[in-house]
Structure formats: structure tokens, C-alpha cells
């Protein structure tokens, strides 16, 4: 009986991540399809419409927006909706958190030395963190609170969406060859995942 229960538990650990991932992807695709299909059907004859066309249209729209955002005018234009949402009480906080999360996961606005190992004062303990601001940054509220030799570092928490933002001297940090998204995945899982560890060579 014990062996059977072990087999079941082991099977659950293998199957559940697959099922949950597939269901989340399916839910996302179906949401996009149901959201855009009525609009697309208004322009495409019913006998021409094929399920999945709305998803392809959505990807085409994303590509078009991404292309136009590379120009100065386009970048300014696509900032307008975000600025509007940023001025709506309640909505601005939600939008800001989601935007920051996507920014961290994409890693586009981070420098190569964004992931650091932070040494705790008077201790041999170190924690993985992500540099969000530097004391040398200009026109930034957080950077204005820092000295030139200080960094604002976000310390994510394992199995949680929370974390701490601390201000530390540069001398308390050492750089890691790791992308912010990799660092978040590593810390949020508590290091228990089976994925091969990223390169953590000190720069």
C-alpha cells in the first residue's frame, strides 16, 4: 500500500505541473480567441473564419505595435494608454505592479550586472537580489534617496510574490552572470527545481 501511495504521489508530481501549465496556456489562448473573434468575424465572412484566426490576428497586432514602438513617435504614442491608467486611483497600482513584473521578466531594461549576491552585515550569509536603481541614476525618486555608491536591490522571497527592497553599498554586492528572470525563477522556487542552474560566474 505504501508503494502504491508513493507511485501515486510521484505520478502527481509529474502530471500536475504539465496539466496546470497546459490549462493556463489553453485558458489564455481561449480568452484571446473569444475576445477578438467577434471583431474579426465582423470583417471576415463566416464561411472563411477558422478557429485560431483571432489568435493569429492578436500576434500580428502585437508585432505591429512592437514594430511601431521602435520609433520615437510610436514609443510616445504607446505610452499614452499607460499614462492614462497611471492617473486612475486604484487602477494605477495594479497596472504599475503588472508592468513592473513584465519588465523584470523580460529583462529588457536591465543592465548586464543587474543580478547580485548581497552579503548581510556582520554575517557570512548572502542573498540573491536584483538591482533596480543606482545612486547615479538621474530623475528617479528612489535614486534620489541613494548615495552615489549605493544600490537599491530587490530581494525576492521563495514561494511568494513578495520581497524586500533594500539600499546597500556596492561593496556589499558581487555581480552574477544571470538574467533577472532566471534569478526570480531560482529564488521563487527556493532552489528546489530540477532545472540546470544558470551560470553564476562572478564578474
UniProtKB/TrEMBL annotation:
Asked if Transmembrane is a keyword of the record, the answer is yes
**InterPro entries, alphabetically?**
COV1-like (IPR007462)
Which keywords fit this entry according to its UniProt record? Membrane, Transmembrane, Transmembrane helix
Domain of life per record = Bacteria
What is this protein's record name? DUF502 domain-containing protein
PANTHER family on file: COV-LIKE PROTEIN 1 (PTHR31876), PROTEIN LIKE COV 2 (PTHR31876:SF26)
Q: Which residues cross the membrane?
A: 7-28, 48-70
Check the record and name the Pfam families matching this protein: DUF502
Amino acid at each position: 500500500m505504501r508503494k502504491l501511495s508513493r507511485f501515486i504521489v510521484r505520478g502527481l508530481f509529474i502530471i500536475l505541473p504539465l496539466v496546470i501549465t497546459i490549462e493556463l496556456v489553453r485558458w489564455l489562448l481561449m480568452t484571446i480567441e473569444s475576445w477578438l473573434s467577434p471583431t474579426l468575424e465582423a470583417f471576415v465572412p463566416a464561411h472563411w473564419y477558422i478557429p485560431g484566426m483571432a489568435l493569429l490576428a492578436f500576434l500580428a497586432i502585437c508585432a505591429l505595435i512592437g514594430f511601431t514602438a521602435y520609433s520615437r513617435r510610436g514609443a510616445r504614442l504607446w505610452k499614452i494608454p499607460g499614462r492614462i491608467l497611471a492617473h486612475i486611483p486604484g487602477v494605477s497600482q495594479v497596472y504599475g505592479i503588472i508592468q513592473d513584473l513584465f519588465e523584470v521578466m523580460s529583462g529588457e531594461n536591465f543592465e548586464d550586472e543587474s543580478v547580485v549576491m548581497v552579503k548581510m552585515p556582520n554575517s557570512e550569509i548572502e542573498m540573491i537580489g536584483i538591482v533596480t536603481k543606482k545612486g547615479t541614476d538621474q530623475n528617479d525618486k528612489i535614486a534620489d534617496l541613494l548615495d552615489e555608491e549605493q544600490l537599491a536591490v530587490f530581494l525576492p522571497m521563495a514561494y511568494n510574490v513578495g520581497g524586500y527592497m533594500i539600499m546597500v553599498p556596492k561593496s556589499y554586492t558581487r555581480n552574477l552572470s544571470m538574467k533577472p528572470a532566471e534569478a526570480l525563477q531560482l529564488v521563487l522556487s527556493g532552489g528546489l527545481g530540477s532545472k540546470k542552474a544558470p551560470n553564476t560566474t562572478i564578474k
